[in-house]
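Many introductory courses stop at the sequence. We go one step further.
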Amino acid sequence: MQGSAVEALVTSGLTRRFGGRTAVNNLSLRVVEGDIYGFLGPNGAGKTTAIRCMLGLIQRDAGTVSIFGETDPVRQRAVVGAMVETPAFHPWMNGRENLERAVAFAGRGTRDDIDRALQLVGLWGREREPVRQYSLGMRQRLGIGRALVGQPRLLILDEPTNGLDPRGMREVRDLLGNLARQTQLTILISSHLLSEIELLCNRVGIIEGGTMIAEGTVDELLAGKGSVTEVDVRATDLDALRAALQGMAGVGVLSGEGEPTDGLRLALDGVPVAALNRALVTAGVEVTALVPVQRSLEELFLSLTRKELT
């Protein structure tokens, strides 16, 4: 299905340098229509610079950007809405006036578009209040509303939950999920908050030092490379368990952090969990638990980069 899907955003070899420093290095990613794509990495990884290159806000040194098959930056802007970093507004104006000013400046959008955007982001009924009275979460939602004016096909949001408390994060996460369902938008979200992305996105790309180090569906990345699965096995007799595993094809014993104290962590390369269980029972091992290891995106990130998130 992915192979026949419409490509919403494709970059190839995207590169941006600042003097002798390469901020974005040969970056290639693929977002298909209908994706909620998480663009992940720690602060300073090059996410915002890459997004600015994708949007044509800064010049790229190398590479190409295609948005729904269009490579001309002017025509690309007709189908893209974006919020890059913290949205800025005129605090003395109300929410509607700020959106009207944005429409006049961009030359795209109508009064109906503004009404629709305010309704979608949950600010209908609050649009006449001065923005200086808005909470940070409301300002973030107004920024998303501004990006929605003109009914874009692709929405690009840079750190949309940055600075929000847990309630505000959840409001934005629920908003984006509802937007994807109600409007069939394709959404790219950059973030360093991996737990939020794991709850929202179906596909992710992880960037470090301006370079893409992993890309795929959330399930694919969490399942690990190829056909390798990790499981925790507990048994009444660990010596019998170790003896039964000796010479068992496709099964390796792991050690280190997370290993159960009363069992073993195993790596299964192409071996179904049920087949392992049958083999152990046949060998006379009394298995008390056999649990596939569930990884989080944060654990995956740390295993790939060995860097702490900030």
